[in-house]
């Protein structure tokens, strides 16, 4: 299914500016009459952080930023979908152009800056599909202008724990000024303590919700050691 979609849609999408092509892809998935996903080979099943994944290939955060098409992506064959990054309040992100194709590398440069319709819109959509099954994680981030970014993450955990298979706390983005400061040991310790406290506080209603931490890929080894020690 993914291969067929690629062959049919790639020429059209590459005729558009990258962000417009992305928006069109979301709209196509909203209306495409996709059949149910094919049954996965049992050898692909993977159990990670207490969850059973039918296959290990998922759609990462950044594609379905506002939780508009998680079920369509699951029907396309992905073993899980991670929506977001979702911020508490709507925000526009960085000025356009902010998404750039690297055709020779089959990749893109993303400088979107947490553009998000906000938690209310995403929560409404996820609550509406809560009984649909499938693994849907929620990637959350702080608003650019938040006076207390840790409080943003706490509020998002409280709101999304009941409708998320897992929640990813995203502190890795280089496109939100100062966000990576949360990776510093003392600040990270506070962040994780408050996030875990929020998760436990809502667990009686929401159930157990795994919490993941997304960090920058270019941390130094000493900084990475600090992150690992705090996360244990």
Give the quaternary arrangement of the chains. single chain
The portion of residues assigned to helices is 25-40%
Cα-atom Rg, whole angstroms? 18 Å
Query: Secondary-structure element sequence?
Result: HHEEEHEEEHEHEHEH
Q: How many DSSP helices?
A: 7
Number of strands: 9
Percent range for β-strand residues: 15-25%
Q: Residue ranges: pLDDT <50 for 5 or more in a row?
A: none
Strand order of the largest sheet: 3-4-7-8-9
* Overall 3D form: globular
Outline the biggest β-sheet: 5 strands, parallel
For the record, give the distance between the C-alpha atoms at the N and C termini, rounded to a whole number.
Answer: 40 Å
Q: Give me the secondary-structure category.
A: alpha/beta
Mean pLDDT: 87
Task: Characterise this structure.
The protein has 232 residues and is an alpha/beta fold. Helix content is 38%, strand content 16%. It is built from seven helices and nine strands. The chain has a five-stranded parallel beta sheet. The chain is globular, with a radius of gyration of 18 Å.
